[in-house]
Amino acid sequence: MTLNRANLGRAQAAYSVAEVIVTVFVLRTLVVSLFGAFSSGLMLVRLERENLRATQILKTVSDGEIAKLRFTRCAFHGEWNYSLSP
Predict the structure, then answer these.
(1) In whole angstroms, what is the distance from residue 53 CA to residue 59 CA?
(2) What is the sign, positive or negative, of the torsion defined by CA atoms of 72, 75, 79, 82?
(3) Spatial contact of 71 and 85, defined as CB atoms under 8 Å apart
């Protein structure tokens, strides 16, 4: 038995308006979600690169500049707790 589209009635031969509207809504939601995911992912990569570069710049302090600072040990855990004297 073979199915022939000519034998089907008009209601069975095409998609209904409701099916088309639901499909368009689902596809629109998927496209917007995909765009948002790529956008936020690329933004996070850019922010991480900026933060890494800023950290690298801040870490380039010479030993001479460190020697000019006057650190004093605090009474509470002086092995790791320091304060700067003016």
Answers:
(1) 10
(2) negative
(3) yes
If 0-12 CB within 10 Å is exposed, 13-18 middle and 19+ buried, where does residue 27 land? exposed
Cβ-based neighbours of 73, under 8 Å, separated by 6 or more: 79, 81, 82
Q: What is the Cα–Cα distance from 62 to 42, expressed in whole angstroms?
A: 34
Q: What is the pLDDT of residues 16-72, one digit of tens each?
A: 899 999 999 999 999 999 999 999 999 999 999 999 998 888 777 777 787 788 888
Question: The tokens 């917007």 sit on which residue?
Answer: 32
